[in-house]
Amino acid sequence: MEFKIAVLAGDGIGPEISVQGVDVMTAVCEKFGHKVSYEYALCGADAIDKVGDPFPEATYEVCKRADAVLFSAVGDPKFDNDPTAKVRPEQGLLAMRKKLGLFANIRPVQTFKCLLHKSPLRAELVEGADFLCIRELTGGMYFGEKYQDNEKAYDTNMYTRPEIERILKVGFEYAMKRRKHLTVVDKANVLASSRLWRQIAQEMAPQYPEVTTDYMFVDNAAMRMIQEPTFFDVMVTENTFGDILTDEGSCISGSMGLLPSASTGESTPVFEPIHGSWPQAKGLNIANPLAQILSVAMLFEYFDCKEEGALIRKAVDASLDACVRTPEIQVEGGAKYGTKEVGEWIVNYIRKA
Ligand SMILES: NC(=O)C1=CN([C@@H]2O[C@H](COP(=O)(O)OP(=O)(O)OC[C@H]3O[C@@H](n4cnc5c(N)ncnc54)[C@H](O)[C@@H]3O)[C@@H](O)[C@H]2O)C=CC1
Ligand SMILES: CC(C)CC(=O)C(=O)O
Ligand SMILES: [Mg+2]
After folding, report:
1. What is the pTM of this model?
2. What ipTM was estimated for this complex?
3. CATH 1.10.8.100 fits 1-100+267-353, yes or no
4. How far apart are CA 197 and CA 62, in angstroms?
5. Is residue 96 in contact with ligand 1, taking CB distance under 6 Å?
6. In this structure, which residue's CA is closest to atom 4 in ligand 1?
7. Assembly state and interactors (predicted)?
8. Which ligand 2 atom is nearest residue 105's CA?
9. For the chain (length 353 residues), average pLDDT per consecutive 10?
10. Where do you find CATH 3.40.718.10 in the chain?
């Protein structure tokens, strides 16, 4: 195959993990005889500083002509700490998702056997947890009408029937391919938007008689994820709830630096870690590159390159087993590995495999 990849490194730890993702992509392509080329483009705070726009038109063009986007993270404290800033790095990420029509964000939450004790939850509780959060990505509060003055502010949580139907369909279809259990997470006891989600889910469920569909309020789901994470197979939920619940999900795996995702929909898919730009770690070579590297595995799997994805997963497992890990998941007293060293170890493993 031939892959044209748009690389959007962004801010904070973004550029450091991006390099590792690209190197793994290149190593796998060499191994399997695929051609790969990269086009780098600006986004986030970096793009605001350089051209005044967090998702410049030139970046959009690069994304449109690519087969896939390898995205890292955006965000910078100088904007986080200025609630009056009119242009923000995160608007670039939202613009990319909206313009590319990426309505379905697939976020797998899994455990690694050797990291069970790194979860703040008891190992026996998280063992075997393996679920997908299907997060709606281009609607809801992040995109609804907003207003802000010194006395009043609001964000509108709006969803239309077609938006709900298409994301629920993704949820039901993933459930069919997995353990056939779909949990629709909403707040239908309070929110009108959630009631429409639940109504449409109930209308669609009979089309998937093999799927056990249940409905759970988001506050209860947040608790159940901690209490019994193995309960879940596929959960489908709106943009805001999915964003929050998957950060919580990273505690099941043991680190924010472990969770990849695929943002898919109407055009070029984007593969991105679920975490942000962790600005405090910028330049320190301590960020875990695995979320980015596993996003590359998801990229290959999206294009039906199963062996390529499996090799990356094998290399990641091997690095963890060999204790080649970044500080937040390192064994006590073990050798120290940085972002770069973990990435290089994985690339070498792939080359030798
Ligand atoms: N997709 C994106 O680009 C996202 C961007 N952001 C932005 O990122 C900036 C920082 O936001 P935060 O709320 O601090 O979230 P964050 O995800 O950047 O960091 C939260 C915590 O997660 C851990 N963490 C994150 N990435 C890690 C990695 N690769 N390896 C090991 N540990 C890691 C660290 O302990 C960190 O303190 C903000 O400007 C925010 O708006 C936040 C979330 C997503
Ligand atoms: C920074 C936000 C726009 C998004 C976010 O937190 C996420 O996609 O996980
Ligand atoms: Mg988030």
Report:
1. 0.98
2. 0.99
3. no
4. 35
5. no
6. 276
7. Homodimer.
8. 8
9. 98 98 98 98 98 98 98 97 93 98 98 96 97 98 96 98 98 98 98 98 98 98 98 98 98 98 98 98 98 98 98 98 96 90 98 97
10. 1-100+267-353, 105-262
